[in-house]
Amino acid sequence: MQIFGPIYDKTMRWSKHKFATYWLMLVSFIEAIFFPIPPDVMLIPMSMSKPKMAVRYAVYTTIASAIGGIIGYTLGYFAFDWIKGFIVDWGMQANFDRMVVWFETWGIAVIFLAGFSPIPYKIFTICAGVMQMAFFPFVITSAISRFARFIIVAKLSAWGGEKYAEKIHRSIEVIGWGSVVLAAIAYMLYTFLK
């Protein structure tokens, strides 16, 4: 069943659209607050299709993500009672509880690790607000960690460029279905070992 090829083709077309940079920034901004899809989904193909713009894309993504992180922090700080229902409804309570323990144990270092964690960034931003972490250290650390992640992703994608885009296109179904199988195995192991 060919599912991932058409998605890949559409994503690559979107990455070349004249408003792609604005969409990248919007996705990055809302991902730090509530959106489930990381900005890498747009950053990678955009950096592949325009390698000379990769660093600029990483900077734009970082700025938008940092601003979104500030909104997430503010929601956690001032409106946690209002948003805690969403955390439960979206199945993020376990991740949130884990973040509280991490913040209590490691403090600001957690924000630096958040930039590279598979746990959604929004959990970190909201939890930082709930824990009333110092605001300016949160913003600075958040911006540094997000930029470090996005610059690595953008530069690696640019390094591969169009030549790897074609190779990925030829193997996208295997990569996509392989990822689904690995995710299913990881989930089953997680639930079995829990």
TrEMBL record:
<feature type="transmembrane region" description="Helical">
    <location>
        <begin position="20"/>
        <end position="37"/>
    </location>
</feature>
<feature type="domain" description="VTT">
    <location>
        <begin position="38"/>
        <end position="154"/>
    </location>
</feature>
<dbReference type="Pfam" id="PF09335">
    <property type="entry name" value="VTT_dom"/>
</dbReference>
<keyword id="KW-0812">Transmembrane</keyword>
<feature type="transmembrane region" description="Helical">
    <location>
        <begin position="57"/>
        <end position="80"/>
    </location>
</feature>
<protein>
    <submittedName>
        <fullName>Membrane protein YqaA with SNARE-associated domain</fullName>
    </submittedName>
</protein>
<keyword id="KW-1133">Transmembrane helix</keyword>
<dbReference type="InterPro" id="IPR051311">
    <property type="entry name" value="DedA_domain"/>
</dbReference>
<dbReference type="InterPro" id="IPR032816">
    <property type="entry name" value="VTT_dom"/>
</dbReference>
<keyword id="KW-0472">Membrane</keyword>
<dbReference type="GO" id="GO:0005886">
    <property type="term" value="C:plasma membrane"/>
</dbReference>
<feature type="transmembrane region" description="Helical">
    <location>
        <begin position="133"/>
        <end position="154"/>
    </location>
</feature>
<feature type="transmembrane region" description="Helical">
    <location>
        <begin position="100"/>
        <end position="121"/>
    </location>
</feature>
<feature type="transmembrane region" description="Helical">
    <location>
        <begin position="174"/>
        <end position="193"/>
    </location>
</feature>
